[in-house]
Write a structure and sequence with these properties.
- The protein is of the alpha/beta class.
- The protein has 19 helices and eleven strands.
- The strands form three sheets. A seven-stranded mixed beta sheet has the order 4-1-9-8-5-6-7, sandwiched between helices. Strands 2-3 form a two-stranded antiparallel sheet. Strands 10-11 form a two-stranded antiparallel ribbon.
- The radius of gyration is 21 Å and the shape is globular.
- Bound molecules: tryptophan (TRP).
- The site of tryptophan has 13 residues, from strand 5 and strand 8.
Length: 395
């Protein structure tokens, strides 16, 4: 069973529950925290948000679209109803951590197998409103973040990346306005927990994250087509925005966006929190050196192993809380090898130092490759992605 969940079709009521519902876990677009060492109780969250877990049947359906080990031929792919991918990032920090890459790795894979346009929204306005950052500072951080996103392997002929501060206007703003007219203060209070002393900027913002779900926001890509369906790969904390979007879509005669959520990469100290850019000892940054990665994992990665070698050999390690194992689950490609590691660590045959060595190597490789690709990106290429342009698709 995958950790990823997708919204079900019934998820379109507003005022569902506020994000501080009935569990101890706090998951909303601004906070992620829980009390359990095994991390967020996604099963409870799924019920609270009205999502559904991706089960084997759905995975099988997904896989049936792909011949094993092979991409569908483009003739077959183009025979499918066309759709586009939309995701985004709030540029809040100059240094991304490996957890930030997770939704982009997955987005890149979706784009590769389906060969569809991708839109990436940089919500510099959101971070201005919530984090009190300076406008000029944000501009620089946005471009830095875009470089990291491009380094995940995207292609400017298939991808448009925009900052809200620059792209706001014309077709996009018209959609923002239409959404703003349809959603009341009462509704965003219910969804996001806004109060009377929140700035009016925050209250109006959700419409800005909703609007790119509609193809009419991008006439340079979709021409006059207003009905191209959208799939949004994102972390599950972004769900409230899209519950709102799915509610307004039919009233605007637009298709509802579909969602596919990723879970959070846990912090080094344990799965009680997600990795956070502001805590260097709790995160592995994409700028870390091989040595820094090694030291961080050895020093800070929470271990589910025994206190002593004897105890570990006797009782085995607990993969559910062991951060090294959890990271391998995210980043190691080989299923058989992962199953072997789980078995050997749980039985006590594989020691904590040994599983740490495995995750160190894996992270060093991913980060080093990322750094090489990022270094090769110049200002010209940034411009190619960020200037409104027609993509290599005909609509
Ligand atoms: N709000 C998101 C963040 O803070 C950024 C974002 C904008 C986004 N549009 C999106 C994320 C669509 C996922 C999908 O990171």
């Amino acid at each position: 069973m995958s950790d990823i969940v997708s919204t079900s079709d019934g998820v379109n009521q507003l005022n569902l529950e506020s994000s501080s519902g009935d569990t101890d876990d706090v998951v909303d677009p601004w906070n992620v925290a829980c009390n359990s060492a095994s991390g967020i109780d996604y099963d409870k969250l799924i019920v609270r948000f009205g999502c559904t877990k991706i089960d084997q049947t759905l995975l099988d359906r997904f896989a049936s679209l792909l011949p094993p080990g092979e991409k569908l031929h483009r003739f077959l792919r183009r025979g499918l109803k066309p759709f586009f991918l939309y995701t985004g990032r709030g540029p809040s920090s100059g240094s991304l951590h490996v957890g930030h890459l997770v939704p982009f790795f997955f987005t890149k894979w979706l784009q590769d197998v389906f060969d569809v346009p991708l839109i990436i929204q940089m919500t510099d306005d959101e971070k201005f409103l919530w984090r009190g950052m300076k406008l000029d500072e944000l501009q620089k951080i946005t471009l830095d973040n875009v470089r990291d996103i491009i380094a995940c392997g995207f292609d400017p002929d298939k991808t448009f990346i925009f900052s809200d501060m620059s792209y706001m206007g014309e077709a996009f703003y018209k959609n923002v306005l239409q959404i703003q007219r349809l959603v009341t203060f009462n509704q965003v209070k219910g969804i996001f927990g806004f109060g009377d002393s929140d700035s009016i900027g925050k209250i109006a913002f959700p419409a800005i994250q909703a609007a790119p779900s509609f193809s009419s926001s991008f006439p340079h890509i979709f021409g006059s087509k207003k009905d191209i369906p959208c799939l949004v790969p994102c972390a599950i904390d972004q769900d409230p925005y899209f519950r709102m979007t799915r509610d307004v879509a039919p009233r605007l005669k637009y298709p509802k966006p579909a969602l596919i959520h990723s879970s959070f990469l846990p912090a080094l100290a344990g799965a009680q929190t997600k990795m956070s850019a502001s805590d260097p000892n709790n995160s592995v940054y994409v700028t870390d050196t091989a040595n820094q990665i090694k030291n961080k994992i050895n020093k800070y990665a929470y271990s589910g192993g025994g206190q002593t070698i004897e105890e570990h050999r006797e009782k085995g390690g607990n993969c559910a809380v062991d951060i090294s194992y959890q990271y391998l689950k995210y980043f190691l490609e080989d299923d058989d090898r992962l199953a072997e590691i789980e078995r050997d660590y749980s039985s006590g045959q594989l020691l904590t130092g040994e599983i740490k060595k495995l995750v160190i190597e894996e992270l060093q490789k991913i980060v080093a490759e990322h750094q090489v690709r990022r270094k090769a990106i110049n200002d010209e290429q940034l411009k190619l992605f960020m200037t409104p342009h027609k993509l290599n698709f005909n609509f």
